[in-house]
Amino acid sequence: MRTIKRNDLVQSIVALGNEITFIVEGHIGSSKSSLAYDVERALPTHRMVYIDMASIADTGDFQLPAVNHDTKTSTFYPNESLGLHTDQPMIIVFDEIGKTSQAVLNSILPALNERRWGNTYFHADTIVFATTNMGSENVGDVMKPHVRNRITMVRMEKPNAKETIAYGINNGMHPIVAAWIDRNPQCFESFEDVENPDDNPYIYHPKVQRPAFVTHRSMSRASTILHKQDVLNTETLTHLLCGTIGAPAALDLMTFIRLADQLPTRSEIIGNPSKAQVPDSPSAMVLLVCQAVHWVDEGNFDAWMTYMNRFNGNEVKALFMLQITKHKEKVLWASRNQSYTTYAMNNAHLFGA
Predict the structure, then answer these.
(1) Alpha helices in the chain (DSSP H)
(2) What distances in angstroms separate CA 96 from CA 74, 105, 346, one per listed residue?
(3) What is the DSSP letter of 187?
(4) Between 94 and which of 24, 130, 184, 279 could a Cys-Cys bridge form, CB atoms 3.0 to 4.6 Å apart?
(5) Mean pLDDT computed over every residue of the chain
(6) Is the pTM value of this prediction over 0.85?
């Protein structure tokens, strides 16, 4: 099935979401729900309404009947959370729409197709979209043909390791997590490309039951845990990671963490870039690079470049250059740095510059 990149999908929702409802299919834990925040950033005048459809028990959670004794008629009043009583444009997100009951789904069909709730029409600029898991994941998401005909189904492309690291750099991902992902890009492989689940023990696969596994969401939680590792002992840290990303990934990550303890500190690199210890292990060098992307600034950039240029080979150096280009603020002053620009011109073939 064709897929659409996340940024292109956000642009489509912003441009067309007030007229067409997109239902976004995607892999478990691939950040479908957070599309709402991307759209909200693009439309700051809109108010976001997030609705977890898996938690909606019946239509009474959306609307209640009200009686007009003068006209001897009744109508339905929509829940205040929908914001239909205001004149403000909304971003209405029906998350996990494939897991709701048919009765509840029927009650929101006018919202999906006609931009109205009962007799109340939405603001002309109100955006409506929904998310669901792929049916092939076997987690209960089903959409009947008459529903699909009222909307536009799109499949969001699963972000790969490089895209995830680039996003994480701007959103507080722990450098050890970023480094581990870089060395294990298969952790975001699609089960659709893995016939035998044993070939990739990290990921969710519908052919086997795994109590925990790697997704973009679970790696984000692993990052949160590692930010608190100073107050956790090794056994506790390992247990928490196993319950978050699964034992195969957790044990590999713990090995990576032990490797990190053998590396020079930031102050050693900045204070003496010509003599600070340079690791022999490629994995250790990748870890240092992923850490440096977070902490380098205009004042210590020359020191870091002096240190990094002592690494054997160009692969790890190219990784650093690539990640800096994806950092919105740092690339501005890095592009004015002589060491950075010289390396970029001499080695452009390594990273597509």
Answers:
(1) 6-16, 35-42, 102-113, 145-148, 161-169, 175-183, 216-226, 234-245, 247-260, 266-271, 282-295, 301-308, 315-325, 330-334, 338-346, 348-351
(2) 31, 11, 49
(3) G
(4) 130
(5) 88
(6) no
